[in-house]
From TrEMBL:
Lineage per the UniProt record: Bacteria, Pseudomonadati, Pseudomonadota, Gammaproteobacteria, Alteromonadales
InterPro entries: ATPase_NBD, Type_III_PanK
Self-association state and partner proteins as the record states: Homodimer.
Annotated family: Belongs to the type III pantothenate kinase family.
Pathway participation: Cofactor biosynthesis; coenzyme A biosynthesis; CoA from (R)-pantothenate: step 1/5
Protein name: Type III pantothenate kinase
Residues annotated as the enzyme's active site: D100 (proton acceptor)
Length: 244
């Protein structure tokens, strides 16, 4: 009889939605979007424990924790102050760094033994730079693609947007198209700049990208950038291997 490999439920609570993954010490198995409390209960049945990483609303996190407690499942709320040695945070106050950024760096380290930059194209866009020794050098935070478009629509009288879809052509020929291609080129610009920043510092490096809006940019990634959608869960796995 084969022994059951323990699986942990990992939750990545962002500002737009909650992603989950079933994770063992070695692999990320099932992943998806958490829909509601019933869905959470179904996932809890097959989990040995729960690891929660949140940059979202604390009230919402508290609701999820209630459900987890009522099912008597062990859980742990991760924080950047938890010491995992692989990445040393550049901030004077590491607690201010978004946990998703730190986990993305931890995840990227599994795939790279060189200096690297990791970009997350989510509600916000973030980029973090790490040297070969695992020292976080610093990073960037800017609005995500949807936020850029929404704030243009909100703060101008005549700039209209089509919130139903994205025009992905390189240049636009009406207002809606110009906004979409403009916002996408902003995001592409940060990728190019991250590549340039690394090129200026290091002769050899890796670039990683993740986040819900990557698909809009995929055809135009700089060559060599690695798209690892589950990179944050690989970061959480690192944590599980060290703690569990
Ligand atoms: N099913 C979906 N629900 C919500 N957003 C989605 C979905 N599919 C793709 N997206 C896109 O993903 C983006 C959010 O990305 P992601 O899920 O990585 O961010 P987040 O984790 O909520 O936020 P962040 O990590 O930036 O705090 C949204 O801007 C949206 O355009
Ligand atoms: C920047 C976001 C919103 C990206 O998800 C998140 O990492 C966050 O809330 N960070 C806190 C601020 C910081 O990282 O400095
Ligand atoms: K966000």
């Amino acid at each position: 009889m084969s022994e059951r490999i323990p699986e942990y439920l990992c939750l990545d609570i962002g500002n737009s939605r909650v992603k989950y993954a079933m994770v063992t010490k070695r692999e990320v198995t099932d992943t998806g979007i958490l829909t509601d409390q019933n869905h959470l209960q179904q996932l809890l049945v097959k989990s040995e424990g729960v690891y929660i990483a949140s940059v979202g609303q604390t009230e919402y996190v508290a609701e999820l924790i209630k459900v987890i407690q009522s099912s008597n499942c062990r859980y742990e709320l991760l924080s950047t102050s938890t010491q995992v040695q692989a990445i040393a945070v550049a901030y004077n106050n590491p607690a201010k760094l978004g946990l998703d950024r730190w986990l993305a760096m931890l995840g990227a380290r599994r795939f790279s033994s060189r200096p690297f930059a990791v970009l997350d194209i989510g509600t916000a866009i973030t980029c973090d730079f790490v040297d070969v020794g695992g020292q976080h050098l610093g990073g960037w935070i800017c609005p995500g693609i949807q936020l850029m478009r929404q704030s243009l629509a909100k703060n101008t009288a005549r700039v209209t947007t089509n919130q139903q879809q994205w025009y992905v052509g390189d240049i636009g020929k009406d207002t809606e198209e110009c906004v979409d291609s403009g916002c996408l080129v902003m995001a592409k610009g940060i990728i190019d700049r991250a590549d340039l920043w690394m090129k200026n510092q290091f002769s050899d490096y890796d670039l990683f990208i993740c986040g819900g809006d990557c698909d809009l940019l995929l055809p135009e990634f700089v060559s060599g950038i690695r798209h690892i959608p589950d990179i944050i869960f690989y970061g959480m796995m690192q944590f599980i291997s060290e703690k569990a």
